[in-house]
Amino acid sequence: MSHVSQVLWAALAVGLVFGVVGQRTRFCLTGGLRDWLLDGDGRRIRAFALAAAVAVAGAQTLELTGVVGLGRSLYLQPQFSWLLFLFGGALFGYGMILANGCGARSLVLLGSGNLRSFVVLLCLGMGAYMVLSGLLAPLRLWLAGLTSVAPGVAPPSLHGLFAQGLSSGVARGLAASVVVLPLLLFAVGNRAFRGSVRDWLGGLMIGALIPAGWFVTGWLGADDFEPVRLVSLTFVAPIGDSMQYVMLSTGTALDFGVVVVAGVLAGALLASVLSGNFRLEGFTTPQRMLRSMAGGLLMGVGGGLALGCSIGQGLTGLSTLALGSFLAVAGILLGAVLGLRGPLRLPSL
Amino acid sequence: MMIQSVLPDHDAGRRGFLRRGGALVAAGGLLVLVPGLVLAREPWERLEAARDVIGERTPRSDGIRLELPLVSEDGSSVPLTVSVDSPMAADDHVESIYLFASGNPNPEIAEFRFSPRSGRAKVATRVRLNESQAVIAVARTSGGEILATSRDVRVTVSGCLTRNDDADVAPMQQPRVRVSTNANGDGPAEVLTLINHPMETGLREGNDGQPVPRRIIEHFRAELDDQPVFEARLFQAVSANPFLRFYLAPEAGELRFTWTEDTGETAALSEVLDPA
Lengths: 349, 276
Prior knowledge:
The complex is a heterodimer.
Chain A: H1 3-25, H2 29-39, H3 43-64, E1 80-81, H4 82-98, H5 103-111, H6 116-132, H7 137-147, E2 148-149, H8 158-162, H9 168-188, H10 191-194, H11 197-220, H12 237-248, H13 256-274, H14 286-306, H15 312-319, H16 323-340
Antiparallel strand pairs in A: 1-2
Helix pairs in contact in A: 1-5, 1-11, 1-13, 2-3, 3-9, 3-11, 3-15, 4-14, 4-16, 5-6, 5-13, 6-7, 6-12, 6-14, 12-13, 15-16
Chain B: H1 2-40, H2 48-54, E1 64-67, E2 71-72, E3 78-84, E4 94-101, E5 108-114, E6 121-127, E7 133-141, E8 146-155, E9 173-180, E10 189-196, E11 217-224, E12 227-234, E13 243-248, E14 253-261, E15 266-273
């Protein structure tokens, strides 16, 4: 089996696990924030924090042991636009509150029979392609040109920042610790979370899928002549890619992201049918449909600008400790909190 | 009198108007027809570099295949495979395949030369396309037959590209070769080659605003026991770190690969080929 087929089969496995786990544990940043800020239930947000801790620890272990060099990834480019990361992240965060779930969550919900998510996903994919290569791409390039900054440390990550005064290995360990430990403390320090098996499983397994993705593209996909692009889980561009793939597959090659998207859908479908939770749901009012469309579009546009979503930047980007990813995550959280509280608050669904 | 003197003038004017009108209609018709005629022609008939290879002959389009993605978000590295159906026998084989990019500043991409010992007229590489355009392949057989095909590629910008490392690549370093013979010993062996090289086009400005001088690998040759079996002429449109995948008929011998830069510098690598 060629290294490309190995990557694609492994991507299917990663997607299936994500779909099953996402469906059974209701892993979701949007839902986690809403439960926490509006209902005082912090279990799901802590599952997300645990996932982030596991993702960072796993990815940094891969890097430290030399199995996968993350420096070739999208997140560790020497320059990034602070404006697009922050503003794009905020658009994404607000969009996911509008649409009641991020891209990955919408895939899981669609697999469980929620047809509203289909509208969200179509708008998300279209919005993403609009900013990546379509109508809004010139605007994105112009803004990126105006606001790009080079952090001036190599690699442009927390590790690079610490390595200014410390040896590389120590700096990496320290940089990973200052991210992982607070996240772990936040998650495990809560009694309600500690007692919730569902959220433990969700956090641990989704978190482990991030280094698994790095391993698949960076180790299985390594080749002297035709290397596979180094990526892990993200759900903005790949949703657009999947839409393009179903329309242009005769002239397009299958890649990791598209297969993961298919896997998540299939995994969620499988889990919901087997557990008897599959139920078709649609829109009850046109207002709700408008909200889904706007949310999907904002997530696509914002995720395209910030180069990632709650998973793509929030877990995968963060796992590389890239400075830009911290900014994008701050943007996503800011946008989401604005959607839940304050003058721009959206009515609860 | 007045009327008589006016009417002929008036008539003449009207006739003139009609004549002019007729000419306008005819010209309009031509305007509609001419692009129609131009569009009806094949892309290789519109490109001078391709016409030079084809000459007066009429190429056929069956038996030659060009594989490129329909949409490419990275114009600096578009995977391309070209192949021609041919027995690759001594008296009937493909001699050369030429690749052209109709919309690049310099239309030539590469020229590949085969021998019967190539085993298969098929090459894969990665190319640069600076906009959406038609990519053209023209092949010439030992019998003098010409084959041509083209494929439209849409090139878009993308936000999901990692930085271009071209500038950091040290030229002529780390030549790499992998020969994978068929498991049961029959059929041509697949050869993958790659060398580190920025393939500077000479069209790019460096960080200091000065044009970066052109520096490319111009020539690649594979020899089996000092006999050339496959050669490639490369132009600026071949991507950085030029990659070539081609085939060799199963024979034992010593394979020698040579890359030649436009500066005259060469890099070489040898491998013993043993199909058993």
